[in-house]
Amino acid sequence: MKAIVVTDQAAGMAGVKLMERPEPQAAINDVVVQIHASGFTGDELSWPSTWTDRVGRDRTPSIPGHELAGVVTALGYGTTGLSIGQRVFGLTDWYRDGTLAEYVAVEARNLVALPGDVDFTVGAALVMPGLTAWQGLFEHGRLRAGQSVLVHGAAGVVGSMATQLAREAGAYVIGAGRAAGWKTSAKSIWFSMSSAATSGSGLRA
Ligand SMILES: NC(=O)c1ccc[n+]([C@@H]2O[C@H](COP(=O)([O-])OP(=O)(O)OC[C@H]3O[C@@H](n4cnc5c(N)ncnc54)[C@H](OP(=O)(O)O)[C@@H]3O)[C@@H](O)[C@H]2O)c1
User: Fold this and answer.
1) Does the beta carbon of 123 lie inside 6 Å of ligand 1?
2) How far does the centroid of ligand 1 lie from the alpha carbon of residue 178, in Å?
3) How far is the CA of 29 from the centre of ligand 1 (A)?
4) Which domain holds residue 99?
5) Is the pTM of this model over 0.90?
6) What's the pLDDT at 204?
């Protein structure tokens, strides 16, 4: 299969190459997914997990990218909960080959069904910011219905996810940011700010 591969940490982005790699096999509890859309985080090439396994051994050549949306093509022995042909999206383990490839082997527990009316590109794009927002609000923040939350950078990728998740949970959202064009449909109080001073505020429905 075709894959984006890195072998030399010192080379940075110049070391990113398109290569032929063997198609992955599904281990116990894995599925193989044919990738339709993939996400790559800007600083992944600086993560230790891109270069070594969990005990610090070199694992290059490695395939970056950990967000994905695609279709299940194979099930590992004992894998339950997903089926061949199912549309899925999710995140792959940082220490395993990633999603900038035609196929990836991924633990089934790291995937969920992608609804038929959600594009693959949308599915792959919302995983990381959605999880970031979720953890900030509900795992670290323990936000509950009726509480208020201030979302900085609320028009950004993580901020817009945080705004929508908080509203869905019944919380009140105060959003702060610089953006002129707000994309959220949630009811929110917004403040338009520069780093030096507040330049505007209002109420959006
Ligand atoms: N995206 C992810 O999956 C992810 C995961 C983990 C952590 N993070 C971290 O979460 C943070 C936000 O990431 P993001 O992906 O949501 O970025 P983003 O889409 O670029 O959003 C950043 C937001 O912050 C606003 N902003 C920037 N400078 C500002 C300033 N001086 N005053 C007020 N607002 C300002 C931007 O406003 P404008 O729209 O006007 O530029 C934008 O709305 C970053 O620190 C990132 O490293 C992101």
Assistant:
1) no
2) 10
3) 35
4) 2-120
5) no
6) 38
